[in-house]
Amino acid sequence: MSDSLHELWLRGVAFNPAAPSDVLIRLMHEAAVELGRLMCKNRDLPDAVIDAALRHPEWRIRGALAGNQHVDPSRLAPLATDPSGLVRARLAHPRRRSWPRWVRLLPDDIILALLTARDGGEDGRLTANEIISELDSSRQMPLSFFRSLADYEDPALRIRAMWRWESLTPAQRARLLDDPDPEVREAAHDRNWKLDPERVEAELPSLRPGSRPYVLDTCALSPALVEQCLADDTVRPLARNPHTPADAVARLARHPEAKVRELVAARPDLGPDLVAELGEDPSEDVRMRVRLHPFPRTWAEYEVIDLVVGHCPGCGCPITEPDPDPATVPTPDWFAACAVSREVVLRRVAASWSRLPAELVRTLAQDDDEGVRVRLALNHPLAPPHLLLDTFVTRPKDRADLVTLPGFPRTGRTHLIDHPDPEVRALAAADPTLPDPPVDDPDEQVRRAAAANPILTPEALEPLLADSRTAEGAAANPSLPASRMRALLDRCLHGAGT
C-alpha cells in the first residue's frame, strides 16, 4: 500500500467526528507534527484529547490548540502561562494574519495571566510586552473587562484599564485622574489628552501623518483648530467628530459637498431647525440620513447605523459579543422598531443585532432585501436553517463561516446534488438522508464529502478506503468502526497488517 494512501487515511481519521480519544491522542503523539497541529487547531476535541494536547511536549501542538475556535476558551487557561511565549502569543491572538468572522472573548483569568506575565517565555522568542500587544489587537478582551480593571487594587492594572479610555465611565475617568498613585494619575492625564482641546492642538503637529484623520475624527478640538480645518476644507472628519462645536456643525450643514451634509445629517446633536433643513436637501442620501435618525437621537444609535451605512450586505468585519453596558448600545425597543421600518438600512441594522426577538427574526428572514437576509444569516443565532442554506448557495465568500453555525442544516440539502458549483454539490453529498452518495463525482471535494457520508455502511467503506480518490473521506466517515480506525493507524504508523 502506498505511503500516499497512508497519508490520506491518517488525515481522514484525524478529522473523523467519531474517532475515540485514544485514536486522536495516538495520532497527536505518533503521526507527523503537522497533522497533529492541523487536528488540534481545526476540529472539536474530546476533553481527554484537549488534556493531552495541553501537556504535549511540542510547542506547535500546544500553539495550535491555543488557536482552536471550537474549544471552550476556559479549557485553554494553562496555555496563558505556557513555558513557550510562542504558545502564549497564539492564545493572545489566534489568527494574526486573518480575522476570524466571530471573535471569541477570553475569560478574565486568562487575560489577567497574559497581562501580568513577568517574561515572554522560556524560548526567548518574544517579550511579555510583545505578547500583550498581540492580545490588545485581538479583540478578545471585552470592554467590560477594562471597566473592571479601573477598580483593581493593583496600580499596574488600573493603568491597563486606560487602554480603552473613552470606554470607561465618566466617574471612572475622574477617579483615575485623581488616583492616589502618582503613576496612575500621570497615565490618566496622558490618556485624557484627546479630551483636552488645547493639548490636542499642541500634539497634532508631532503626530504621524496617518494619525491626523483619527485625531480630527474623535478628539476634542480647539476653536483655532476647527477654523483651520474649515479653512483647509478638511471637513469630513469635523462632520463626524462628536466634539465639533454647534456653530461649526451649522456651517457644515450648508457645505456644497453632499457627502459632508450627509455626515452632518446623521449627527445626534443636530437641532430641529437643521434637521428640518437637511430633510429638504436636494440630495436623496442626505434626506435618507435624516429619515434614518428621527428624534430623540443618541450617539449609540448613530454608531450602529454607521456600521451598516457604507458597508456591503455581507460585510466581513469581525463580530464580537455585544457590549453588556446598556449605556453604550441602543435599547431593545429601538432595534425592534428598526426591524419593522420602511427604511431598508434600519432593517439591516436590526438584522445585525444578535438579540433580536424570534418573531422579528422570522419576519426579517422573509425580507425583500438581500442585505437584510444576509446580515440576519451571519449575525443571528435564530436565523432559520433555510435562510442559512440559501445564503450558502448564493454567497460563496461566506460559506466557511456559515457551516460553523449551530443552526446550519445538516439535512434537507439533497436537492442541491446536481448543482453546477462543486462546493454546493459537496454540501449535498454529505447529507445523511441522501440515498446514494456520489462517490464517483468528477470533483475531488464532492467525492471526499460523499465518502464521508454516514449513510454508508462499514462494508461499503472498504473499497473506498482502498481508492486514493475516496480514501480520505472514507477514513473520516463516522460509520467507520473504531477498531478499523485503530487498524489503519497500526498499518500507517507501524506497518502492521490490516
Notes on the structure:
There is one protein chain. The chain has 498 residues and is mainly α. The chain has 32 helices and no strands. The protein has helices at 3-14, 21-30, 33-42, 47-54, 59-66, 85-92, 108-115, 128-136, 143-149, 155-161, 170-177, 182-191, 197-203, 212-218, 223-232, 236-240, 246-252, 258-265, 272-278, 284-292, 299-306, 332-339, 344-351, 358-364, 370-379, 385-394, 399-402, 422-429, 444-451, 458-465, 471-475, 482-494. The chain starts with a helix and ends with a helix.
Characteristics:
mainly alpha, about 55% helix, about 500 residues, single chain
Ends: how far apart? 11 Å
- Rg estimate, integer Å: 28 Å
Content-based structural category? mainly alpha
Given the C-alpha coordinates, what overall shape results? flat
Please bin the fraction of helical residues.
40-55%
Q: Count every helix, treating DSSP H or I runs of 4 or more residues as helices.
A: 32
Query: Which sheet architecture does the biggest sheet show?
Result: none
- Portion of residues in beta strands equals under 5%
Number of extended strands: 0
Mean pLDDT: 91
> What low-confidence regions span 5 or more consecutive residues with pLDDT below 50?
none
Question: How is the secondary structure organized here?
Answer:
Blueprint: H1 3-14, H2 21-30, H3 33-42, H4 47-54, H5 59-66, H6 85-92, H7 108-115, H8 128-136, H9 143-149, H10 155-161, H11 170-177, H12 182-191, H13 197-203, H14 212-218, H15 223-232, H16 236-240, H17 246-252, H18 258-265, H19 272-278, H20 284-292, H21 299-306, H22 332-339, H23 344-351, H24 358-364, H25 370-379, H26 385-394, H27 399-402, H28 422-429, H29 444-451, H30 458-465, H31 471-475, H32 482-494
Helix pairs in contact: 1-32, 2-3, 2-4, 3-5, 5-6, 6-8, 9-10, 10-12, 18-20, 22-23, 23-25, 28-29
